[in-house]
Design a protein that fits this description.
The complex is a heterodimer of chains A (319) and B (340).
Chain A: H1 2-17, H2 20-37, H3 39-42, H4 77-113, H5 115-130, H6 133-143, H7 148-158, H8 161-175, H9 178-186, H10 190-226, H11 237-246, H12 249-252, H13 255-282, H14 293-300, H15 305-318
Chain B: E1 17-32, E2 41-55, E3 59-63, H1 70-77, E4 85-90, E5 93-94, H2 100-107, E6 110-113, H3 127-137, H4 144-157, H5 176-188, E7 194-198, H6 206-223, E8 226-231, E9 243-248, E10 251-257, H7 258-263, H8 268-275, E11 326-328, E12 332-334
Parallel strand pairs in B: 3-8, 3-9, 6-7, 7-8
Antiparallel strand pairs in B: 1-2, 1-4, 4-5, 9-10, 10-12, 11-12
Helix pairs in contact in B: 3-4, 3-5, 4-5
The chains are: A mainly alpha (319), B alpha/beta (340).
């Protein structure tokens, strides 16, 4: 077992490194995560500290004292920006864990059990899918208290539909493979087959999907905060946009107060998307089904160094 | 290779039968005719009125074209498909009505080998884990160390020696023949009394086929395992099977001792199948009987004998009477009204 996971992890990393987009996405996300974790070390000012300001401290241009200027309350935009990563990433992480758990469970159960169970679960998913997410989220958050926990719960509980559909279709294709029938013929129970045979082959898809769901959750949180439905005690990127927008940054010409949080959102969402697509390629479970698959790959791409070694005896024999 | 034993027709060798199938039928509901589904129901008749028995340590070959219901029969015997009608007696117990919990116990003694060794192994599990799995599922073999001993023994019995060279490897590192041996080891580890081998060699290179067939014959001889050997290739039957059953469109048309069926076939379908088996010696080659037309679809079965639309000998009576199996030739039973 140990050697199994080590070899597949090694092979995975080798494939993964061959996708430059995925590596760029990974680096972008790592930078955002490091910024969020080490915020107190990076940010020059504490956004929560009580400061005395004069009218001249509002919307000041970027300067050596304030790298990205100040906002409507005279606070350092760069510091707000770094701390804002914490809120956005927290919401993204926890909301996507909820979504993936619900979507994964529904998808696997529907795909594997089929019949009536599948019908009920997938019709429920369809209903959830056609309800427009954002207005519903707005209504629910407006009716409950807009706290961080509530926002995570609402985004998480509504964001699982696409995962459920994807996981179901992958489960259907894994279920059709003969080793599942073999396990049934051996006498394995259905929960055992799901755990041992279905889940490991569906997991790559779930991992890819998680990264994409994270970006969706971050985007949803930003939208909510921008609409003024964010947690008022926390300064997320969406909240920064909301304050800048409603408190005259546009008329004051304070572009730094708008561009900075916008850049943060784009950075993280783009990073997630790039990483997600790269993972999709690297984790493709169909890539490793044949013991000669790697050989085929080498023959198909004669440009690589390995192929030149593999190709030599072949060209000799053809002479 | 052991000579096929002299066993007449379809009768049991002694009272020591492992498996007795009587009038087994499996049909799949396709749908109903008419716009609102109020019309007649249409079915796929995969297995229709099949009866045979299998003695201890006996190999029965089940031969037929693809789509004739061979694999469905195996899945029905194993309880993975519920029979529509008929009786399956395994080790003296009527198992056709068993619940899935009861079937789990049956599957300890009845194991299946699948056609495609590339698809029937989980690509993410090591060979050791794959062969260990049946023991875990059935909570057999005591401690982990004892289970490992059984896994090693099963692998070596299946011809993968030394076993510890294979335990940690993944399926994609093995060749087709080695994978099929892993599948066989996974079945042997439970020490079954009956093996259902569904086209175990059809996906393998010709050079490896003989090895796997020899392995199955060896298991029959040393362990006394009964084998239902399902194949579409009459050429692989002679070396292994004691008896042969020829299946056409869900029904057995001829059954009997291997030598009798191969050297003196009675049913026109069996004759046609045998005439297309390649003969190495060109002087011994004979005229091939190429059947015209396609196998009729198993939804709308022909009336009378189901072989009559393709039968070169068919007469009017064949369109009306559905012939039952009756004794004919050198100890066979044949379902054809033209054979006395």
């Amino acid at each position: 077992m140990e050697s199994t996971s080590v070899t597949s992890l090694g092979a995975f990393w080798r494939t993964f490194r061959q996708h430059p987009m995925a590596m760029i996405g990974l680096v972008m996300l790592l930078i955002a995560i490091i910024a969020a974790v080490c915020a107190p070390l990076i940010a020059p000012y504490d956004p929560k500290a009580i400061i005395r300001i004069t009218i001249d401290d509002i919307y000041t241009r970027p300067s050596p004292a304030h790298w990205l200027g100040t906002d409507d309350a005279g606070r350092d935009v760069f510091s707000n920006f770094i701390y804002g990563a914490r809120v956005s990433l927290t919401v993204g992480l926890f909301a996507s864990i909820i979504s993936i758990f619900i979507g994964g469970t529904i998808g696997i159960v529907a795909g594997f059990y089929g019949g009536r169970t599948e019908n009920i679960l997938m019709r429920f998913t369809d209903i959830m899918l056609v309800i427009p997410d954002l207005p519903l989220i707005v209504v629910i958050v407006a009716l409950t208290r807009p706290s961080l926990t509530n926002i995570i719960l609402v985004i998480g509980l509504l964001g699982w539909t696409s995962t459920a559909r994807l996981v179901r279709s992958q489960t259907l294709s894994v279920k059709a493979r003969k080793f599942v029938l073999r396990a049934q013929a051996v006498g394995a129970s259905r929960p055992y087959i799901i755990r041992r045979h279905i889940l490991p082959l569906v997991l790559p898809l779930i991992v890819v999907n998680t990264v994409l769901v994270i970006s969706l959750a971050i985007l949803n949180e930003s939208t909510l905060s921008f609409l003024g439905l964010g947690d008022p005690t926390l300064l997320s990127w969406g909240q920064m946009l909301n304050y800048a927008f409603t408190r005259g940054a546009m008329s004051a010409g304070a572009w730094w107060a708008l561009v900075t949080p916008g850049f943060g959102i784009v950075w993280v969402v783009l990073g997630c998307t790039l990483l997600g697509h790269g993972l999709e390629q690297a984790l493709n479970p169909r890539a490793e089904t044949h013991h000669l698959a790697q050989l085929h790959e080498q023959v198909a791409r004669p440009a690589s160094a390995a192929a030149r070694f593999a190709g030599e005896p072949m060209s000799l024999s053809s002479d | 290779m052991t000579m096929p034993r002299a066993i007449s027709g379809n009768e049991l060798p002694g009272k020591d039968g492992v498996l007795t199938v009587t009038n087994l039928q499996k049909r799949f509901l396709l749908g109903r005719a008419g716009i609102f589904g109020r019309g007649s129901e249409s079915y796929v008749h995969a297995v229709d009125d099949v009866s045979f028995s299998l003695g201890r340590g006996e190999v029965l070959a089940l031969v037929g074209e693809s789509g004739c219901g061979k694999s469905t029969l195996a899945l029905t015997l194993l309880g993975l498909e519920k029979p529509t009608r008929g009786s399956i007696r395994f080790e003296g117990n009527e198992i056709s009505e068993y619940s899935s919990a009861q079937m789990k116990n049956v599957r300890r003694h009845m194991q299946m080998i699948f056609q495609d060794p590339y698809e029937s192994l989980n690509p993410l599990m090591s060979i050791g884990e794959i062969v260990m799995e049946p023991l875990k599922v059935h909570k057999l073999g005591g401690s982990r160390a004892e289970q490992e001993t059984r896994v090693v023994r099963a692998l070596e019995d299946a011809g993968l020696k030394p076993a510890d060279r294979y335990l940690k490897r993944l399926p994609h590192e093995l060749s087709g023949g080695q994978r099929q041996r892993v599948v066989i080891a996974g079945a042997l580890v439970l020490e079954p009394t009956l093996l259902l081998a569904d086209e175990p060699v059809s996906m393998l290179d010709v050079s490896i086929r003989a090895e796997i067939l020899n392995l199955l014959a060896e298991l029959r001889d040393t362990r006394g395992i009964s084998i239902l050997f399902i194949t579409h290739d009459l050429g692989t039957v002679g070396a292994l099977a004691d008896r042969v059953a020829v299946m056409y469109l869900g029904r057995i048309v001829e059954i009997g001792p291997t030598m009798a069926v191969l050297t003196n076939p009675q049913h026109p379908y069996t004759k046609a199948l045998l005439s297309v088996v390649p003969v190495p010696n060109p002087r011994l080659r004979h005229k091939r009987l190429i059947l015209s037309g396609e196998t009729p679809d198993p939804i709308n079965l022909p009336t009378g004998c189901r072989f009559h639309p393709r039968c070169p000998l068919a007469v009017d009576a064949c369109r009306k009477t559905d012939p039952p199996l009756h004794p004919a030739g050198a100890g066979q039973e044949v379902a054809c009204i033209l054979v006395e």
